[in-house]
């Protein structure tokens, strides 16, 4: 079996609760219970069964949808209990047979997506007052424990049998791929020598020792488990939180399904098109209309009333879908050109109004969501060139973030072209390692950031160049040739080297847990994934579940 | 309770050099009091002070492994024995077949071995717990003695496994040995590891079915472990098999005696109604077979199992009578297995190593079929028209690839609703248990037997059937 997308229909990321195969959410006031009940026969691809609550991309697409909808559709929820709907097993992690039979690209993209979902869980706990707790009512291995690690608290059933484990190293010759190692020592601060034992013991750690080592926050006997978890959930849901104002009525996230044309997906505000011969794609984002700006200027209640039709939410959901679709379905597209359409001044006005309304819970969620989508862009392993080549391009405010996220920003030197900074460019949309894209770009000159913050006005190409926002400023005569050559040159280089190089250059500054997770994922895990000891014909991952035993090349590299 | 090594050595018959092994002494000194405490709490209730005519293994010699005498159970000498080996031990299966066996735990296989041993060990105290109240309703002194013999030997098997944990697995091994005394059969919070060992065994029909079917799983597990490349495990389990044979004898002949008695009562009753005569009717016996046989099938593990493949490939666990096979790697072949696909049964070829649980289950099923033929011969000889049968191995399963589907006793795929509608016809019901408990009245007179069971053909170790196997009078 080959799970590469070429032989299969493209992966789609839109879903909704009526289509879930693997999850169920029960709402009880301020508490939501997310039940994982994976349908073993409903894998996204043929050739493996999702036994013991193991998961594949399809399961995680639903989980991502659950997490997102909880924030937008259920703002009344304070505590989310993640637990298993199957007896005696919480989650066995990513399905090993799925991994073993997948292409490298599929594994890498799968891991990245699942990581982003785990980060969304932490983001909801940190920024939306939706605290996730994991109730491990059975054995919890690998990705299952990593899902638990993304939760603020972990409760384990103490029945002499249920264990938490990260068996990837001893069993499969790979690493835990969703941040397990980092979260064990950095987030939970498990002592690193104990972590060493934990991560090399396939069967994991049970009960009291798991508690003593800090791998879980509480253990309860089986007969009292449900009751004690309910008690914890209740206490957590009643915790004192400084809730943002605004009527706590959920906003339903309706479909954003694009029109699909030949080499094109057209959403309302976003278009993704691609040129298979040139191996390039173009994402164009339309800025807000005058009506959109007027609406936002009416403040929180009006923004709330606009719901999922709000430009800032809808456009970003579309961009998110386009990025995911591109990652999984356009594998050989190495370079993505980012364009914007609209009015730069209008984007700034929009941002100002939205930022001013940020105390309203829904406006806040919209901003947090925007930040997450932009982080998805930062973390996409394709080259991005932002092209500001038309006089209606609108690289300003939140849309300037696209240019700041891009590896290069080409700007047409035309007196009608405008670039602008607004309130969202100075920390409201942080990168995964914390700082704003602007401060990352101007790392050599922090004072400049402060200076620009005070100006916050539209700039012509020359001023933008002076401010350090532009990579290459080209006049009309040079534009076509120079951009064509740059695009062709980029497309000709080694995709692997470019991926590594971009990941090194994009995240200037100090690391945090999240950036460590992604950095180590791309550096170590993806390297191990292609090493013969994991995926060669005699590698541990290849042979898992097969009658032969793995053989390792014992040289340390 | 045990304060010094001299005591320890005297108390524990062994051929493992206990007197010179400080590490082992230290571990056992600590564990022994906990074990005795567990035995007092969870062993046979209320019979601690009675003399029981028991067999004790005091050495591995021909005349040492079966020493018969009266003994009070808490004073039973739980010993530690390895089967002696003349020739050099070899790894008998898997990738390293033919190489020298391991006399110490190879680091590479430490976790897998520990898991195998702990899982096996956990069944030993579990069955003692399941059977702890049965002494009160024994159908005869002969049967009561057999029950206690089984119990003390399960205790000794626990010792044998704990020896391996203490001797070869360091601190982790000691922790696991302690945990073996903490789990409890049927306890919702600290259940025993395997399902069948948490099922209630509260009357003698279940006891005989358990020793017939569930202990027989034990025989096959032990036989597979007796092929292990980890020499101490192979030699320990080999010795355990000699004792396990008695448990199977108790189960198989116990069921046979019930069958025989029921056939007599069937003939005796004008309407052929066994229950009317206070006996155990054949439908109920069949439901008991269906229940315990299928729970025991679960114990062999998944039909398609990467663990089974690993254990075989690494030489940790072989097939039943691995020495009878010509080829010990089993790398090429496949095993054809009925599986449920798209709502119906079809066949799939599974790599042989991944089907090793099924290969072992085959040997077990074969053995059970032999016992059924024997019981049916008893029925035939007694002139009864009734015949008993083993259900399909797909029926009433809680583990493996059939667990999520419903089958009738002949193995046809049916709906879960259909199964539930006929469950009471097919497996033991609460009302069955009520009836059985109502007829299970103790029979404590030497040579006397309860109405629902025939006497055995001979006594223990040449003693007459009316021998006082348990001295109940003070």
Helical residue percent band of chain B: 40-55%
SS elements, strand count of chain B: 7
For the largest interface, the chains and their residue counts are: A-B, 19 and 23 residues
Largest sheet strand order of chain B = 2-1-7
What are the secondary-structure elements of chain B, in order, as H or E?
HHEEHHHHHHHEEHEEHHE
Shape of chain A: globular
Poorly predicted ranges of chain A: 1-6
Main β-sheet of chain B, in a few words? 3 strands, antiparallel
End-to-end C-alpha gap of chain B: 25 Å
Count of structural domains of chain B: 1
Please identify the structural class of chain B as seen in this structure.
mainly alpha
What is the highest CATH level, the class of the largest domain in chain A? Answer: Alpha Beta
User: What is the rounded Rg of chain A?
Assistant: 24 Å
| Share of β-strand residues of chain A | 15-25%
The helix-and-strand class of chain A reads: alpha/beta
CATH fourth-tier homologous superfamily of chain B: Ribonucleotide Reductase, subunit A
Per DSSP E runs of 2 or more residues, the count of β-strands of chain A stands at 22
User: CA-to-CA gap between the ends of chain A?
Assistant: 30 Å
Keywords (chain B): Oxidoreductase
Protein name (chain B): Benzoyl-CoA 2,3-epoxidase subunit BoxB
Organism (chain B): Nannocystis pusilla
GO biological process, one term (chain B): phenylacetate catabolic process
Question: What's the helix and strand layout?
Answer:
The complex is a heterodimer of chains A (557) and B (474).
Chain A: E1 23-28, E2 31-36, E3 54-55, H1 57-73, E4 79-84, E5 88-91, E6 93-94, H2 96-100, H3 104-127, E7 131-136, E8 138-141, H4 143-149, E9 153-158, E10 163-165, H5 168-172, H6 180-187, H7 192-198, E11 205-206, H8 207-212, E12 218-221, H9 222-237, E13 259-261, E14 264-266, E15 270-275, E16 280-286, H10 290-297, H11 300-306, H12 311-329, E17 335-341, H13 344-356, H14 361-378, E18 383-388, H15 397-405, E19 408-412, E20 419-420, H16 437-441, H17 446-455, E21 458-459, H18 461-466, E22 472-474, H19 476-492, H20 495-506, H21 513-530, H22 532-535, H23 540-543
Parallel strand pairs in A: 2-4, 3-6, 4-7, 5-8, 7-9, 8-10, 9-12, 16-17, 17-18, 18-19, 19-22
Antiparallel strand pairs in A: 1-2, 10-11, 13-14, 14-15, 15-16, 20-21
Chain B: H1 5-11, H2 22-42, E1 51-56, E2 67-72, H3 110-130, H4 141-168, H5 170-180, H6 204-225, H7 231-268, H8 282-298, H9 306-313, E3 334-341, E4 344-351, H10 356-381, E5 406-407, E6 413-414, H11 416-426, H12 430-439, E7 470-471
Antiparallel strand pairs in B: 1-2, 1-7, 3-4, 5-6
């Amino acid at each position: 079996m080959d799970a590469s997308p070429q032989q299969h229909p493209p992966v789609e990321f839109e879903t909704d609760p009526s289509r879930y195969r693997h999850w169920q959410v029960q709402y009880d006031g301020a508490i939501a219970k997310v039940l994982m009940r994976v349908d073993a026969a409903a894998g996204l691809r043929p050739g493996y069964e999702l036994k013991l609550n193991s998961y594949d991309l399809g399961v995680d697409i639903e989980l991502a949808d659950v997490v997102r909808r909880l924030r937008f559709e259920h703002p009344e929820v304070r505590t989310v209990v993640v637990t298993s709907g199957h007896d005696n097993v919480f989650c066995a992690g990513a399905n090993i047979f799925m991994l073993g039979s997948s292409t490298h690209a599929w594994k890498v993209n799968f891991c990245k997506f699942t990581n982003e979902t785990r980060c969304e869980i932490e983001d909801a706990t940190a920024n939306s007052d939706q605290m996730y707790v994991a109730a491990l009512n059975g054995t919890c291995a690998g990705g299952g424990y990593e899902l638990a690690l993304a939760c603020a608290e972990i409760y384990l059933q103490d029945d002499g049998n249920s264990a938490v484990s990260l068996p990837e190293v001893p069993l499969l010759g790979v690493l835990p791929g969703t941040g397990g190692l980092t979260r064990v020592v950095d987030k939970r601060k498990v002592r690193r020598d104990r972590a060493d034992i934990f991560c090399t013991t396939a069967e994991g750690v049970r009960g009291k020792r798991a508690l003593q080592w800090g791998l879980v926050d509480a253990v309860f006997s089986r007969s009292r488990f449900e009751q004690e978890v309910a008690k914890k959930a209740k206490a957590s849901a009643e915790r004192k939180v400084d809730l943002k104002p605004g009527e706590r009525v959920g906003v339903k996230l309706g479909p954003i399904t694009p029109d699909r044309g030949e080499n094109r997906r057209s959403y309302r505000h976003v278009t993704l098109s691609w040129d298979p011969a040139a191996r390039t794609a173009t994402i164009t984002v339309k800025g807000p209309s005058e009506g959109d700006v007027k609406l936002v200027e009416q403040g929180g209640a009006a923004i709330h009333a606009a719901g999922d039709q709000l430009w800032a939410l809808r456009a970003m959901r579309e961009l998110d879908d386009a990025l995911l679709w591109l990652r999984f379905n356009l594998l050989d597209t190495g370079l993505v050109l980012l364009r914007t359409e609209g009015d730069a001044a209008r984007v700034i006005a929009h941002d100002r109004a939205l930022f001013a309304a940020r105390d309203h819970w829904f406006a806040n969620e919209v901003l947090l969501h925007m930040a997450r989508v932009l982080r998805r862009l930062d973390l996409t392993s394709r080259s991005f060139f932002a092209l500001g080549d038309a006089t209606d391009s609108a690289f300003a405010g939140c849309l300037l973030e696209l240019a700041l996220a891009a590896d290069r920003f080409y700007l047409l030197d035309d007196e009608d072209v405008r670039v602008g900074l607004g309130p969202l460019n100075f920390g409201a949309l942080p990168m995964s390692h914390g700082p704003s894209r602007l401060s990352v770009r101007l790392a050599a000159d922090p004072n400049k950031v402060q200076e620009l913050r005070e100006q916050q006005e539209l700039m012509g190409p020359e001023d933008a160049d002076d401010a350090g926002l532009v990579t290459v400023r080209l006049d009309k005569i040079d534009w076509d040739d120079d951009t064509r050559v740059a695009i062709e040159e980029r497309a000709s280089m080694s995709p692997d080297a470019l991926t590594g190089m971009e990941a090194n250059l994009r995240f200037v500054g100090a690391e945090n847990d999240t950036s460590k997770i992604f950095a180590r994922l791309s550096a170590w895990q993806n390297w191990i994934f292609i090493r013969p000891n994991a995926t060669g014909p005699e590698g541990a991952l290849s042979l898992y579940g097969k009658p032969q035993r793995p053989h390792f090349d014992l040289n340390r590299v | 309770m045990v304060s010094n090594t001299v005591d320890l050595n005297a108390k524990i018959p062994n051929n493992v050099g206990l007197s010179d092994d400080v590490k082992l002494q230290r571990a056992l000194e600590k564990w022994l009091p906990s074990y005795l405490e567990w035995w007092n709490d969870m062993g046979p209730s209320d019979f601690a002070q009675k003399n029981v005519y028991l067999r004790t293994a005091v050495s591995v010699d021909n005349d040492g492994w079966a020493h018969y005498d009266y003994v009070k159970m808490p004073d039973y000498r739980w010993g530690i024995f390895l089967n002696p080996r003349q020739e050099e031990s070899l790894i008998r299966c898997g990738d390293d077949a033919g190489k020298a066996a391991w006399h110490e735990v190879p680091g590479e296989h430490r976790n897998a071995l520990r898991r195998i041993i702990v899982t096996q060990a956990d069944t030993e105290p579990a069955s003692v717990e399941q059977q702890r109240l049965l002494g009160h309703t024994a159908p005869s002194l002969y049967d009561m003695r057999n029950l206690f013999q089984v119990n003390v030997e399960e205790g000794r098997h626990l010792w044998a496994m704990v020896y391996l944990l203490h001797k070869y697995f360091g601190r982790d091994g000691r922790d696991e040995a302690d945990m073996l005394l903490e789990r409890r059969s049927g306890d919702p919070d600290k259940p025993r590891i395997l399902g069948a060992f948490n099922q209630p065994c509260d009357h003698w029909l279940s006891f005989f079915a358990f020793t017939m079917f569930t202990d027989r799983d034990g025989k096959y597990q032990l036989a597979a472990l007796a092929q292990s490349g980890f020499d101490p495990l192979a030699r320990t389990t080999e010795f355990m098999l000699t004792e396990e044979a008695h448990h199977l004898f108790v189960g198989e002949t116990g069921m046979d005696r019930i069958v025989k008695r029921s056939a007599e009562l069937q003939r005796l009753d004008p309407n052929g109604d066994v229950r009317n005569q206070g006996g155990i009717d054949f439908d109920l016996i069949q439901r008991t077979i269906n229940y315990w046989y299928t729970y025991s099938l679960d114990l062999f593990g998944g039909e398609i199992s990467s663990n089974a493949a690993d254990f075989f490939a690494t030489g940790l666990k072989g097939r039943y009578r691995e020495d009878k096979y010509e080829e010990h790697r089993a790398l090429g072949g496949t095993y054809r297995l009925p599986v449920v696909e798209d709502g119906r049964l079809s066949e799939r070829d599974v790599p042989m190593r991944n089907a090793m649980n099924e290969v072992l289950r085959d040997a077990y099923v074969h053995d059970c079929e032999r016992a059924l033929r024997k019981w049916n011969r008893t029925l035939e000889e007694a002139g009864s028209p009734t015949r008993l049968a083993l259900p399909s191995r797909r029926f009433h399963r809680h583990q493996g690839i059939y667990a999520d589907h419903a089958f009738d006793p002949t193995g046809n795929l049916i709906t879960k609703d259909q199964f539930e509608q006929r469950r009471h016809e097919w497996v033991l019901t609460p009302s069955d248990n009520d009836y059985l408990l109502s007829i299970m009245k103790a029979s404590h007179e030497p040579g006397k037997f309860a109405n629902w069971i025939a006497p055995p053909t001979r006594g223990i170790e040449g003693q007459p059937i009316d021998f006082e196997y348990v001295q109940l009078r003070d």
